[in-house]
Write a structure and sequence with these properties.
single chain, alpha+beta, Acetylcholine Binding Protein, Chain: A, Methane Monooxygenase Hydroxylase, Chain G, domain 1, 2 domains, six-stranded mixed sheet, rod-shaped
């Protein structure tokens, strides 16, 4: 009888041990599927170069990762990549016990610039970081609130605007966590106006001096209009050399279309006056010139309204 009691007691302990072990294994399984949270921070040192025709930019920054060594190893954290560039990087600090990894990164990055408002546009320069092999069920990036931009950072010809960091999810066959930081570039408005709008405005105003010439001087009127039109066309082409080919109209294109409309109006009026002068209708030619001058402000107003609506 004692023998059977002993066997039963041992069996009960065995069941209890198996149950505890199974629960522990289940707990470990649940814990293992929880993603590791890795905090990512950046200190942008400088924007070294912006190449609009190539849609590229060169950045210099420090990048660091803070993580829990019990959730993810240092070697796993190191296995990340830049999605929109292939810069050079060297290790500044690596401490697995403290859960810290830092790099100095320099290199070129790519993005698709929006030139709709060129030459008064602004651009965001993003850097996208993603783990090479671990999806969102294994690693999730978080923003380090201490990320910032060096106060002395600058880039020639631009104003540095806002600096932002964010964490996104991107789906391929699987979903991956992405850390993104970007800095905004804005063109100085006064400088852009003087370099882009003022020259073509002066050229257009010179061509409109033809309206102050006598109708009998139609040859000089047409010569002035045609030469200034060629100058405006040349300026338009040089203005577009600063950006890559686009499949849409930029603000500069829309301005030049309005300028071309004014030139067309000027040349059409001059040719019509020339025909009247050839027919010896000097009074009619003078009336057409005066009416054309009165209608010119209306045309300019309409073109400005169209620009605003577009």
């Amino acid at each position: 009888m004692k023998k059977w009691i002993t066997i039963g007691t041992l069996g009960l302990f065995a069941l209890i041990f198996v149950g505890v072990f199974a629960n522990s294994a289940n707990a470990q399984t649940v814990t293992s599927v929880n993603p590791a949270h890795v905090q990512v921070g950046v200190w942008l040192v400088n924007v070294e170069k912006v190449d609009l025709p190539a849609s590229s930019y060169r950045l210099d920054f420090y990048l660091w990762f803070r993580f829990n060594p019990s959730e993810i190893s240092l070697d796993q954290v190191k296995n990340f990549e830049f999605i929109n560039g292939a810069p050079t990087k060297y290790e500044v600090a690596a401490d697995e016990a403290q859960g810290y990894l830092e790099y100095r990164v320099k290199g070129d990055f790519l993005t698709t610039f929006d030139f709709t408002q060129y030459p008064f546009e602004s651009h965001a320069l993003p850097v996208i970081i993603e783990h090479k092999t671990l999806n969102i069920s294994n690693i999730v990036f978080e923003q380090d609130p201490t990320s910032t931009i060096e106060p002395t950072a600058n880039v020639a010809g631009w104003n540095l605007g806002g600096f932002q960091t964010s964490v996104l999810e991107h789906e391929y066959d699987e979903t991956y966590s992405r850390f993104v930081f970007s800095v905004n570039l804005d063109r100085p408005i006064v400088s852009a106006f003087i370099k882009s709008v003022l020259p073509v405005s002066v050229i257009t105003m010179i061509s409109l001096l033809a309206f102050f010439m006598a109708p009998t001087n139609f040859a000089q009127r047409i010569t002035l209009a045609v030469t200034t039109l060629l100058a405006a066309t040349t300026f338009h082409l040089s203005l577009l050399n600063g950006i890559p080919p686009t499949g849409y109209l930029t603000f500069a294109d829309r301005i030049m279309l309005s300028v071309y409309a004014i030139f067309l109006y000027n040349i059409a009026v001059s040719v019509f006056i020339m025909k009247l002068v050839d027919s010896k209708k000097f009074e009619d030619a003078l009336k057409i010139k005066n009416r054309a001058m009165l209608f010119l402000p209306v045309l300019v107003t309409v073109l400005v309204v169209v620009q605003v609506l577009l």
